Amino acid sequence: MSAASCLRSEDQFLCSICLDVFTDPVSTPCGHNFCKNCINEHWNSNDQYLCPMCKKVFNTRPELHINTFISEMVSHSSEQQAAKPGEVPCDVCTGTKLKALKSCLVCLTSYCETHLEPHLTASRLKRHQLMDPVENLEDRMCMKHDKPLELFCKTDQTCVCMFCSVLDHKTHDVVPLKEEYEGKKAELGKTEVEIQEMIQKRRLKIEEIKHSVDLSEEAADREKAEGVQVFTALKDSVERSLNELIETIEEKQRTTEKKAEDFIKELEQEISELKKRSSEVEKLSHSEDHLHLLQNFPSLKAAPPTKDWTKVSVRPSYKGTVVTAVTQLEETLSKQKNKLLEAELKRVQQYAVDVTLDPDTAHPNLILSDDGKQVNHGDVKKKLPDNPKRFKCYADVLGKQGYSSGRFYFEVQVKEKTDWDLGVARESINRKGNVTVSTDNGYWNICLRNKNEYKGFNNIPVVLSLKSRPQKVGVFVDYEEGLVSFYDVDAAALIYSFTGCSFTEKLYPFFSPCPHDGGKNFAPLIICPVNQTE
Predict the structure, then answer these.
(1) 444, 502 Cβ separation under 8 angstroms
(2) Are residues 375 and 288 in the same domain?
(3) Domains in the chain: how many in total?
(4) Quick one: pLDDT band at residue 488, thresholds 50, 70, 90?
């Protein structure tokens, strides 16, 4: 082995005094090498100038010469990084373990750049299989045959050696590791693309949620402002009504007091007259003058004329005053409520969409108009293709358009009908079997039965009490808010709302004109153009 090769051994780079890699290596006259600072400190602390290696004694302090060759070799070695935690160290390095550059699957050893050189130059070693450095190379050997795991059994989905392939796995589908590696790597590439797509979708969902929060905040501010305005007006109305009530009561009290004063004054006047007559009668009754008494008796024998006070009373009635005031206030509040409902209806009508009936979903008994805007129930069951979208058991039909976000609104004329169902349904509803209409089963509907029985199809049907019979019903959906509301368009009144809903798929407008009942319910459901309420 040449001197240069010997120096490439890591031991040649270590100072025998500090046992670390040379720093400023220098040579003594006897040919040994030390760190400049190490040999100087050694001589400074001893009486003799002794070589620590060969023990040769120098009479005078030797002149030290920089060893340029070792300096260059140390510099080259220092350019290679020491293995950090988590990195694979070189198995050959002694002392400081350098970072491995490659691992040999034949030698089962990991090498740094210096110790890898023979595998790159020696012809017998060039045939060894090198790979990026890995730990636990023993795990890459077959425990049964002590041979490299260089094949893959697709049947058992495990790595095997050459002996395994002809013994335990001879009937299995065995391929080189590289072939399976390329396939699995391609699959991982697809997986990575899918994961990145999932990440992107979730980032978009985060932005969507943030946007929804912003919209919610804006809507909340609007609602708060409107609420403050409305309740301030209501408060003013209540205070005004209270003031009017108090003023009415006080006015009645003032009238009563004035009336009482007038009666008292009149009574006091009569009392004065009666006292005067009483005095005259008493005086006359004590007269001894016969002629005088007889002459004045006719004018004094009766009391002076007075008012009949038996039916006169001062009993003011306040009964009904508060009730009347509250009734008037209720009328005011009702008018205010109607204005709010009109404003709400006008607001939701801004989200009007063009809904058309989907003939591919219509039950064979239903009759659809050519423009897809009307549907009623017929006697004849048509022969139609039984595609997956078509309703089989119930005479229902969906709109063509589905909605998976945002808000939408449409109006349906129900005039002259005795039975109908109306609302929205999710895409995955059961269209072939007998299903109870409920929110759990994907329906958010209201219905009319027997001319005047209105219900909301929650999980438990809710009986609805309506002041008037709707002629036209508006349906509004806010997908993100989980809201489905129904309106009596002509009365600008809210019929019913499903709140707190959780929508996870497309929603479609839902229509059921119900059986025609011998012609009594033959009138169609008609999807109407939305006209903004005045």
Answers:
(1) no
(2) no
(3) 3
(4) very high
- The number of beta carbons lying within 10 Å of the beta carbon of residue 334 is 10
Partnered with residue 26 across adjacent β-strands are: 34, 66
Residue 379's φ and ψ, nearest 5 degrees, are -80, -35
State pLDDT tens for residues 248-299: 889 989 999 999 999 999 999 999 989 998 898 889 888 888 888 888 888 8
Neighbours of 395 (CB within 10 A): 22
Strands 525-528 and 407-413: antiparallel
290-300 and 177-285 helices, crossing angle to 10°: 160
DSSP state of 463: E
Domain boundary among 15, 48, 79: 79
**CA-to-CA distance for 263 and 527, rounded, in angstroms?**
73
Structure tokens at 72: 């260059």
Residues 6+ apart with CB under 8 A from 504: 426
Which residues contact residue 155 at a Cβ distance below 8 angstroms, ignoring those fewer than 6 apart? 169, 172, 173, 174
Domain of 70, in residue numbers:
3-79
Positive or negative, the CA dihedral 499, 504, 509, 515 is negative
DSSP helix/strand/coil, 398: strand
Element spanning 152, H or E: strand 151-153
- Does the pTM of the predicted model rise above 0.85? no
Q: Is residue 174, in this structure, part of any structural domain at all?
A: no
pLDDT in tens, 35-92: 899 989 988 888 888 898 888 888 888 888 888 777 766 665 555 667 788 889 998 8
Whether the Cβ atoms of residue 260 and residue 333 lie closer than 8 Å to each other:
no
Dist CA 382 CA 395 (whole Å): 12
